């Protein structure tokens, strides 16, 4: 899947990075907690979030992410968009909720970042 495919699937609007829409993407992460993103993401991916503060761009820079998807029609401020553009990120916005956006992308073949799903039952006692 490419970022252009994501734009079509999500009926999204491209805010910056029009020249990079042919970039392939293989996994996505959805979170409003940047600490979770830092803890679980270790590959170049797409971040789907409703959070529009500078922490999102800093997290993207630390992880060398390719694309930010802002959900619920959110549009970050100009200073955040400028920072994202300096990093070479593609930034898009969709009116879909985070849950719906993830479902639509998953249905079209984009997968989540792999995380261990097994439970340690001794810790749960």
Topology overview:
Blueprint: H1 3-10, E1 13-16, E2 27-30, H2 34-40, E3 46-49, H3 54-63, E4 67-70, H4 78-87, E5 90-93, H5 98-107, E6 111-112, H6 121-124
What is the compact description of this entry?
39% of the residues lie in helices and 18% in strands. With 125 residues, the protein is of the alpha/beta class.
Please provide a written account of the structure:
With 125 residues, the protein is α/β, with parallel strands linked by helices. The chain has one domain: 3-Layer(aba) Sandwich (Udp-n-acetylmuramoylalanyl-d-glutamate--2,6- Diaminopimelate Ligase, Chain: A, domain 1), CATH 3.40.1390.20. The protein is 39% helix and 18% strand. It has a 6-stranded mixed beta sheet with strand order 1-5-4-3-2-6. The termini are far apart.
Shape: globular
Q: In total, how many beta strands?
A: 6
Structural class: alpha/beta
SSE run: HEEHEHEHEHEH
Q: Give the low-confidence spans.
A: none
Describe this protein with a few key phrases:
6 helices, 125 residues, single chain, 39% helix, Udp-n-acetylmuramoylalanyl-d-glutamate--2,6- Diaminopimelate Ligase, Chain: A, domain 1, 6-stranded mixed beta sheet, alpha/beta
């Amino acid at each position: 899947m490419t970022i252009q495919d994501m734009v079509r699937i999500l009926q999204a609007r491209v805010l910056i990075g029009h020249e990079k829409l042919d970039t392939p993407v293989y996994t996505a992460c959805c979170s409003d907690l940047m600490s979770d993103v830092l803890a679980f993401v270790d590959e170049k991916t797409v971040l789907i979030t409703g959070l529009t503060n500078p922490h999102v761009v800093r997290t993207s820079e630390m992880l060398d992410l390719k694309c930010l998807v802002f959900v619920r029609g959110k549009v970050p401020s100009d200073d955040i968009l400028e920072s994202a553009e300096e990093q070479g990120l593609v930034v898009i916005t969709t009116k879909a909720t985070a849950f719906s956006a993830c479902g639509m992308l998953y249905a079209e073949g984009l997968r989540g970042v792999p995380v261990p799903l097994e439970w340690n039952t001794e810790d749960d006692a």
